[in-house]
Amino acid sequence: MSELKSWTQIPIGGYITEPQNSVKNKTGSWRTQRPVIDQDACTRCRICWLYCPEPAILELNKPYVTKSGRKYNLTFEINYDYCKGCGICANECPVKAIKMVPEVVQQ
Q1: Residue 55: is the preceding peptide bond cis (ω within 30°)?
Q2: Going by CATH, does the domain composed of 27-102 fall within 3.60.21.10?
Q3: Residues 28-57 pLDDT 10s
Q4: Which among 8, 34, 51, 98 has most CB atoms closer than 10 A?
Q5: Domains of the chain: which residue ranges?
Q6: Neighbours of 83 (CB within 10 A)
Q7: How many Cβ atoms from other residues are within 10 Å of residue 80's Cβ?
Q8: What are 62-67's contacts with CB under 8 Å, separation 24+?
Q9: How far apart are CA 18 and CA 10, in angstroms?
Q10: Is residue 14 very low, low, confident or very high in pLDDT (cuts 50, 70, 90)?
């Protein structure tokens, strides 16, 4: 039987001892589906970027011209090293420019 501890002996939980250490923990291998952004359909509304819990959606200063000729100064891309495939971005996209596709494991 384990010995009971007083509250002063219990380790503090949720304490960040090394800020920004999460970049060392690539968590993208957990997903079974991956989001894919249709850059031509994307309106750059930033809703996917806002709702991503990781944040694995990157807002890049990278010009993009759609097939219809519309010009954007921003491009949104997925950082698959950290994307867990939760699908929140695809669910929240108002124009359905993000599709969840099955993850293909490289052998």
Answers
A1: yes
A2: no
A3: 888 999 999 999 999 999 999 999 998 899
A4: 98
A5: 27-102
A6: 22
A7: 15
A8: 64/39, 66/39, 66/40, 67/40
A9: 20
A10: low
Partners of residue 101 on adjacent β-strands: 34
Distance CA 61, CA 21 (A): 25
Per-residue model confidence as pLDDT tens digits over 56-91: 999 999 999 999 999 999 999 999 999 999 999 999
pTM of the complete model: 0.77
* DSSP states of the chain: -PPP--GGGSPPSS--SSTTGGGGS--GGG-SEEEEE-TTT-----HHHHH-SS--EEEE---EE-TT--EES-EEEE-TTT-----HHHHH-TT--EEEEE-----
